[in-house]
Amino acid sequence: MPKLISRTPSYRLHRPSGQAVVTLSGRDFYLGPHGTKTSKAEYDRLVGEWLAHGRRLPSASAAQADLTVNELLLAYWNHAEAHYTRDGKPTRHLANIRDAIRPLRALYGHTRAADFGAAAFKAVRKAMIDAGLCRNTINGRLGKVRSMFRWATEERLVPADVLHELASVKALKRGRDGVRETEPVGPVPDNRVAAVLPHVPASVAAMIEVQRLTGMRPGEVAAMRGGDLDRSADVWSYLPARHKSDHLGKSRVIFIGPKAQEVLMPWLRADSDAYLFSPIVAVEARNTSRRAARKTPLTPSQRARKRKRNPKRPPRQSYDKNAYCQAVARGCRKAFPHQEEAAREAKAKDKRLTREQRRAAYEDLQAWRIEHRADLAEWHRRNRWHPNQLRHSAATAIRQRFGLEAAQTVLGHSRADVTQVYAERDMAKAYEVARLVG
After folding, report:
1. How far, in Å, are 242, 289, 346, 360 from residue 363 at the CA level?
2. Which of 107, 141, 167 is at the close of a domain?
3. 209-227 burial: b if 16+ Cβ within 10 Å, else e
4. Higher local confidence (pLDDT), 106 or 427
5. Cα distance between residue 8 and residue 335, in whole Å
6. Residue range 52-77: average pLDDT?
7. DSSP 3-state assignment of 163?
8. Which residues are paired to 89 by β-bridges?
9. For residue 133, what are the contacts with CB-CB under 8 A and spacing of at least 6?
10. Exposed/middle/buried for residue 101 (C-beta within 10 Å: 0-12, 13-18, 19+)
């Protein structure tokens, strides 16, 4: 005969949030800040009701009535932390959820979740509009809020009519409600790509060339390893270990032709598991070039200096998408400088000036940057391109030469309408038709 369990559920600390928590019938209840009188009183109330119902929770309707939006957010966050992971690490979707629920928590955190309806949902949307977010971002974040309430409905945490009410709120339409629109992403001209190549590390320049020739995604080129390449044929095959649609069970094969092979050859390494493009190699190459360009000899103290055994920010084994984009952004700032900023920087580094004069020039530069921060940000935004635009460039070139289906296959899209977002139409064909027919 099994033992009867008479143990009372414990009052515990939920470390990520600092909240007190108690688990009753397999469900976590968050009680407020850990150690406070309020949280302990809430613990006593919930456990007392649970014991009074024969170690069972009260009816679902009673539980729904007491649940606040903050409690729902915390429960959903715990679910999302466990659900949206890859190889034991959180995916980017988790950060997107955090951004989506932030205005919801600020405006309606203490509201009962069962009372959150269409009017409150529109108020959250208005807060996003006032924050200057673009239409696509707002619609995406509102969709994540709906997903949270859909999960809560499945878990019987909120009544089903809450989700129906949120579903009745339509997505924002283009050109309405005064919402900011973003320009569609297009291809980047070859001359602007070529202008950046001398201003980025050799590894990043190779990544740019490979991406431009193959049309792969920024994250795919950053994650290339020798073991992921099949070099048995004249056209190589690259099977990324991870890609955008792998969680859907779809395979991804990227074919690499002779031009891209020529770019990759110097980066192939003996270790098949090593990443082809490594920040470690880039840092070593930069330090070597600096030592070679040094005009004054090392001092004895510099010669005796030892490398830190555990530096705070050691270079990583591989680039990720964000590091790759940041390297390209730095290259764009050097290739397309703001004229006045560049002149002030040159003055602050002019060796013909005294140390005091250079320091004063540097302080003037910093003050000028603060004063013109918005104008500088807009200048650099207009005069930069992103690695994903290389994918658009490749798609456009392939579509013009081989057609839409070929571009769809190369880019790895399951639907042609997605490819049309990347590959711009060949207006020369329409021009020729008009010349002959119109």
Report:
1. 46, 29, 13, 5
2. 167
3. bbbbbbbbbbbbbbbbbbe
4. 106
5. 67
6. 74
7. helix
8. 86
9. 141, 180
10. buried
Residue 273 included in any domain? no
| pTM score over 0.90 | no
Helix (H, G, I), strand (E, B) or coil at 3: coil
Q: Half-sphere exposure of residue 331, counting CA atoms within 13 Å on the CB side?
A: 24
If asked whether residues 162 and 78 sit together in one domain, one would say yes
**Other beta carbons within 10 Å of 142:** 21
Domain count, the chain: 2
Tokens linked to 337 = 């400088």
Order of all β-strands in the sheet with 12-14: 12-14, 19-24, 27-33
In a domain, 78, yes or no: yes
**Surface-to-core class of residue 15, CB atoms within 10 Å of its CB (0-12 exposed, 13-18 middle, 19+ buried):** exposed
Specify if 254 maps to a domain: no
CATH of residue 82's domain is 1.10.150
Whole-number Å distance between alpha carbons of 117 and 249: 36
Query: Tell me, what's the pLDDT at 278?
Result: 83
The total number of residues written for the chain in this structure:
438
Structure tokens at 155: 């878990």
What integer is the mean pLDDT of 371-399? 86
Tokens 């800040």 belong to residue = 33
Residue keyed to tokens 């006593």: 44
Check if the beta carbon of residue 117 is closer than 8 Å to that of residue 165: yes
49 plus 97 within the same structural domain: no
As a whole number of Å, the end-to-end CA separation of the chain is 91
Residues 53 and 90 occupy one common structural domain = no
Residue in the block written with tokens 């764009």: 332
Name the residue among 262, 268, 256 with its Cα closest to residue 215.
256
Residues 35 and 110 in one domain: no
Tens digit of each residue's pLDDT (9 = 90 or more) over 18-64: 889 898 877 888 888 899 988 898 898 888 888 876 677 765 555 45
- Three-class secondary structure assignment of 251-280: CCCEEECHHHHHHHHHHCCCCCCCECCCHH
Q: Where in the sequence is the domain holding 94, given as residue range(s)?
A: 70-167
Q: Of all helices (H) and strands (E), which one includes residue 28? A: strand 27-33
The values of phi and psi at residue 32, to 5°, are 115, 180
State the amino acid at position 109 in one-letter form.
Answer: G
Claim to verify: residue 107 and residue 160 sit in the same structural domain? yes
Are both 79 and 161 inside the same structural domain?
yes
CA distance linking residue 49 with residue 24, whole number of Å: 10
Three-class SS state of 181: coil
Beta bridge partners of 134: 180
From 167, 200, 224, the end of a domain falls on 167
> Diameter of the chain by CA atoms?
92
In a domain, 407, yes or no: no
